[in-house]
Amino acid sequence: MIADILAFWFADGPDVFRPAWFAKDPAFDEAIRPRFGALLAPGREGALDGWAATPEGALALFLVLDQFPRNLHRGAPEAFASDAHALALARRLVPGARMDLALAPTQRIFLYLPFEHAEEMPAQDLSVALFEGLRDHPAHARPNGTIDYAWRHRDVIARFGRFPHRNAALGRESTAAELTYLAQPGAGF
Fold this sequence. Notes:
Elements: H1 2-9, H2 26-36, H3 40-44, H4 55-72, H5 83-96, H6 105-116, H7 121-132, H8 138-141, H9 146-160, H10 167-170, H11 176-182
Helix pairs in contact: 1-4, 2-4, 4-5, 4-6, 5-6, 6-7, 7-9
């Protein structure tokens, strides 16, 4: 299954950035559902944690925990249901074991995203540091590349302590400042 996930996600090559990863694309989302949708619950419950024994397995696991839920549950609380588990694993595998360094730079971003998606400053600071480590790679250092997005996520957490664009999905009431922010073009992720 690990090889199937990686072949699907990195269909154009392990170090080729695919815009579909971060676009709202119903066709791409629906390509994930029948092939990998059943992995979300076992992944969230820890049944797939053994995959993290290898860099490729960890990469596939982070796709199951962090990316696939966002694709399959846009605008719903389930999009974020695996975030705590992904963050706990990322803390062990990235700054601890530095498993990320065995992967291509574009693959590494998916081990860094649990930090970027966390609603806490220490994780955001680590996210920025990790993404800054990709500065030599042109796909990540370009304007609106992954490094810029890491900084933008950090800035939102520094300002609000949470991601206001998640409030509706998570049943949280937005503050006046958050509503002002959300009304701006390009707010949210």
